[in-house]
Amino acid sequence: MTDITIYHNPACGTSRNTLALIRNSGTEPTVILYLETPPPRNELVKLIADMGISVRALLRKNTEPYERLGLAEDRFSDDELLDAMQAHPILINRPVVVTPLGTKLCRPSEAVLDILPDPQQGAFTKEDGEMVIDEHGNRVSH
Predict the structure, then answer these.
(1) pLDDT tens per residue, range 82-109
(2) Strand order through the sheet with 5-8
(3) Is-above-0.90 flag for pTM?
């Protein structure tokens, strides 16, 4: 069994599709409902470093705290952005997936295929009807 963790928001279609793609590879991941159990600051810093992205790149912009706190302004340090994410976990973009092959912000959901160690077990169609994996377990190109 491959050790995979997903920082998941069940209200998000992209997050649901990503979780379903992980399960379609035959693996049941550790699911962290990050809005209920946000990652501690040191873990959040590690996830960002492992993804090779900036703190700002993990910020979810289309959410109320982003506007209210004025986070679009360039005057915030990484520490201040991390403080905001800790205080308002909805600001953490999702889903973040950790596998033995890497850590990735999986937007779009099929980005998870790049870090899944096990192949897809069968066809997969996203909630919006877009086919991502064919009946042979192969990625469909668009």
Answers:
(1) 999 999 999 999 999 999 999 999 999 9
(2) 30-33, 5-8, 96-99, 102-105
(3) yes
